[in-house]
């Protein structure tokens, strides 16, 4: 992490790839911890919020340290260990894996062991079977109060979180309206089973919601004007699931002008962050979702780039909406 961005994070300026650091795998001191080889790293929108001054507190995640590697969700293979509970050959999934080819980790804090379904690649375990999939599954269960034949509206429908939410809503028998920022993404949303799919850049959102609504459940990934449009077209007793506000991450938050609908329509608004839901749902998630992904009952789409040197470009791609699936960097084979 080389510099705090003012707007969009610029590869080569905000982040740099540094190949000068070397370690000797067989002798690097473990100090009671263990050595992992990084297999895959997740690139997620929240990483932009971590690119801030160390004194700014306006986020749930700690700022990245200037001059140190970025960190994100990732999967690693244990190569050596001085911890009797962590044996070489095991795979670990963590929320804060350093963006390095190899890392010495002190303990299992914020890590879990994973066993891979033979029909899924590791990349899926940071996407549909990882943090974004958990966000969708856990918050849908906890907050949607979904009832058959209700109508749900999902923004960023082709993304890692949104694509899972669409499928969960369809499995619960809802009518699903979803949008994304390109025709190609709209096609994917249709393949996921959405009843109404549109490109919010070329189609007026309010016209669609007026025709297809009112909305009983709004899954908000975007914030800003999309949130206001949803408030305008919400049904009485609607549930709003506030998952993210990516429209503001690079340009700053814009206050909603329609908040009065929360009381006039008796809307329930729940904001959430995935790590607070994990203690309740993690076991159930791993028992349910990887199996459905492996059998094809749930679909996923990824955009995998290879090598740590692609991290900066991948971060910018998701901020610009150019990613065509869950953004993942594959660092090494097993
Ligand atoms: P995606 O895979 O959906 O990638 C980000 C997408 O956001 C882009 O592809 C783009 O899609 C869309 N986007 C980017 N800029 C804008 C903009 N200005 N206005 C509208 N859409 C924009 O990411 P995720 O599925 O990983 O994340 C989706 C949301 O969920 C984010 O807000 C993220 O912060 C949030 N999140 C929240 C979690 C929680 O615990 N609360 C956990 C994980 C994610 P398009 O082409 O459709 O515009």
TrEMBL record:
Pfam families: ADH_N_2 (PF16884), ADH_zinc_N (PF00107). The keyword Oxidoreductase applies. InterPro entries: ADH-like_C (IPR013149), ADH_N_2 (IPR041694), ER (IPR020843), GroES-like_sf (IPR011032), MDR_fam (IPR045010), NAD(P)-bd_dom_sf (IPR036291). Residues 18-329 form the Enoyl reductase (ER) domain. GO terms for molecular function: oxidoreductase activity, acting on the CH-CH group of donors, NAD or NADP as acceptor. Keywords: Oxidoreductase. This is Alcohol dehydrogenase. The lineage of its organism: Eukaryota, Fungi, Dikarya, Basidiomycota, Agaricomycotina.
């Amino acid at each position: 992490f080389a510099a705090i961005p003012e707007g969009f994070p610029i590869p080569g300026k905000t982040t740099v790839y540094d190949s000068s650091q070397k370690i000797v795998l067989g002798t690097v001191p473990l100090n009671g911890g263990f050595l992992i080889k990084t297999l895959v790293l997740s690139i997620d929108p929240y990483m932009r919020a971590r690119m801030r001054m160390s004194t700014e507190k306006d986020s749930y995640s700690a700022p990245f340290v200037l001059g140190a590697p970025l960190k994100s969700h990732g999967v690693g293979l244990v190569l050596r260990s001085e911890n009797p509970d962590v044996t070489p050959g095991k795979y670990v999934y963590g929320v804060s894996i350093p963006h390095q080819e190899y890392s010495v980790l002190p303990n299992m804090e914020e890590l879990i062991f994973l066993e891979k379904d033979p029909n899924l690649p590791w990349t899926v375990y940071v996407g549909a079977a990882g943090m974004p999939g958990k966000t969708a599954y856990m918050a849908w269960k906890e907050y949607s109060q979904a009832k058959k034949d209700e109508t749900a509206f999902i923004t960023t429908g082709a993304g890692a979180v949104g694509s899972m939410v669409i499928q969960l809503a369809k499995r619960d028998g809802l009518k699903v309206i979803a949008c994304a920022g390109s025709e190609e993404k709209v096609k994917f949303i249709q393949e996921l089973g959405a009843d109404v799919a549109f490109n919010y850049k070329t189609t007026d959102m309010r016209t669609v919601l007026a025709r297809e609504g009112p909305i009983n459940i709004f899954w908000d990934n975007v914030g800003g004007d999309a949130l206001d449009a949803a408030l305008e077209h919400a049904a009485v007793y609607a549930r709003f699931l506030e998952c993210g506000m990516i429209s503001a991450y690079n340009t700053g938050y814009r206050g909603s002008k329609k908040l009065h609908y929360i009381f006039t329509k008796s809307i329930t608004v729940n904001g959430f962050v995935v790590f607070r839901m994990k203690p309740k749902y993690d076991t159930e998630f791993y028992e349910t979702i990887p199996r459905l992904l492996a059998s094809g009952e749930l679909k996923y789409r990824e955009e995998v780039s290879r090598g740590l040197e692609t991290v900066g470009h991948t971060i910018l791609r998701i901020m610009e909406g150019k990613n065509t699936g869950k953004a993942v960097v594959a660092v090494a084979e097993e």
